Automatic annotation (TrEMBL):
Coiled coil: none annotated. The keyword Lipoprotein does not apply. Pyridoxal 5'-phosphate (PLP)-binding protein, which is involved in PLP homeostasis. This is Pyridoxal phosphate homeostasis protein. Keywords: Pyridoxal phosphate. Residues 13-226 form the Alanine racemase N-terminal domain. The keyword Amino-acid biosynthesis does not apply.
Length: 228
């Protein structure tokens, strides 16, 4: 018998495939990050058995602890939370992609840690398209200068942007945020050829995000159930 987790996961996968087909996109160009924050490692193991390999966490110590407990698993970890400089030492050694960089000091510290761990860190810049004060991220008109400053960090590779839509039922507001993120990416992608990824779309809005060009979806509750 299929578990609840399995049923939810395949429902999400099917809906992504269906939407991609509908809008003429290649499903293989859309990466699903299963956001496992607050769920225990047992749940991640169960998800792994189903075939999930990419997990997103947004607390640094939680990422450190879980990745250590699951060291023998072939998991691709993504860090999607707010960044504190002194916690980057927990994030950089284990993260394939950091979605949420907003400050040059963060890049400086990441670059330093990358030398220590002998890696190149792929990164997304978080942009605050909606302009909400509670949201982290660069304003769209700050992105150009920021990108030009990043070229000094030889071990940091900026591969795209992450954004979050406002918490609203208004689909057009959500759509506009995603659309503007894509326009921003297109604006800079000839000058910065590594810019390809758009991390946008969560449980409540990922289908709109696919329509607007998301390449990475961050989905938690729709896969794992409501967080306690
Ligand atoms: C929690 C979280 C998600 C997933 O949210 P759901 O609504 O549960 O899908 C995605 N992105 C970020 C940055 C998050 O913190």
């Amino acid at each position: 018998m299929k578990s609840k987790l399995e049923i939810r996961y395949y429902n999400v996968l099917d809906s992504i495939k269906e939407k991609a087909l509908e809008v003429g996109r290649d499903y293989n160009n859309i990466k699903l990050v299963a956001v496992s924050k607050t769920f225990p490692v047992e749940v991640i193991k169960e998800a792994y058995e189903i075939g999930i390999r990419i997990f997103g966490e947004n607390y640094a110590q939680e990422l450190r602890d879980k990745s250590k407990l699951l060291e023998s698993y072939d998991i691709e970890w993504h860090y999607i939370g707010r960044i504190q400089l002194n916690k980057l030492k927990y994030i950089v050694p284990v993260s394939r992609l950091i979605h949420s960089v907003t400050r040059i000091e963060e890049l400086k510290e990441i670059n330093k840690l990358c030398r220590k761990y002998n890696k190149v860190q792929e990164i997304l810049i978080q942009v605050n398209i909606s302009g909400e004060e509670t949201k982290a991220g660069l304003k769209p008109d700050e992105v150009g200068d920021f990108l030009r400053e990043t070229v000094d960090f030889e071990r940091v590779k900026i591969v795209g942007f992450m954004t979050m839509a406002p918490f609203t039922d208004n689909k057009e507001i959500i759509r506009n945020v995603f659309k503007n993120a894509r326009v921003l990416l297109e604006k800079f992608s000839s000058e910065f050829s590594n810019l390809k990824e758009l991390s946008m779309g969560m449980s409540n809005d990922y289908l709109i995000a696919i329509e607007e060009g998301a390449t990475i979806l961050r989905i938690g509750s729709k896969i794992f159930g409501e967080r306690g």
